[in-house]
Each structure stands twice: as C-alpha cells, then as structure tokens.
Design goal:
- By secondary structure, the chain is mainly alpha-helical.
- It is 67% helix and 0% strand.
- The protein is built from six helices and no strands.
- Helix 3 packs across helix 5.
- The chain starts with 6 loop residues before the first helix and ends with a helix.
Length: 99
C-alpha cells in the first residue's frame, strides 16, 4: 500500500485501521520506538503498547506521533455520520407526533 501525506486519505482509500497505517509508517521511518517517543514528546510505554496493538492512546499522543511521521489527521464529516443526526431527529419527530 502506498502511503500519502494525508492519513485520512490512506484510511478511506484502503479501509484499514488507522493504527495499521501509523505502524506501517513507523516501520518505514527507520526510527526506534525510543527515538519516536522522544521526538514526539510522548510516553515510551504508551507508544510501545499502541504500536504493538495493546493500547488505546489519547488523541494528543496520536497527533504528536503522526506529526513526527509526516502524517496529517484531518477532521471531516463522513457522509454516513452527517446523515445520522437527521435520522435521529426524524424518529423523534414521529414519536412526538404520535405516528
């Protein structure tokens, strides 16, 4: 898989977990976990667990790691999520209207 500089594009186009993309970029970087933790300013143990699929890091940790690895997290509304609140409101409107 070819990684672009936009993490979101990689996730959407490949439909693989974000963590897999970060791990692939980490392995391609040639950095050690210790060096990545130091450059990103994150806890070594938390980073180790995340890179080995054992942890659930904070968004701030992921953001810092991505920055060092040359990846960008870009917030966007997915069409699926953007439509969900409208459906919830429609159901609520029907219930209140007695239909």
């Amino acid at each position: 898989m070819l990684l672009t500089d936009n993490l979101l594009d990689d996730i959407v186009s490949s439909m693989i977990p974000m963590s897999d993309i970060i791990v692939k970029r980490f392995r391609a970087s040639g950095l050690s976990i210790n060096a990545l933790a130091r450059e990103a300013g994150v806890n070594y143990a938390a980073l180790y667990r995340f890179l080995h699929g054992q942890g659930d890091p904070q968004l701030s940790t992921v953001t810092k790691v991505c920055a060092v690895l040359g990846l960008a997290l870009t917030p966007v509304d997915s069409p699926k999520r953007a439509a969900a609140p409208a459906r919830v409101r429609a159901r609520g409107a029907r219930a209140k209207g007695g239909r």
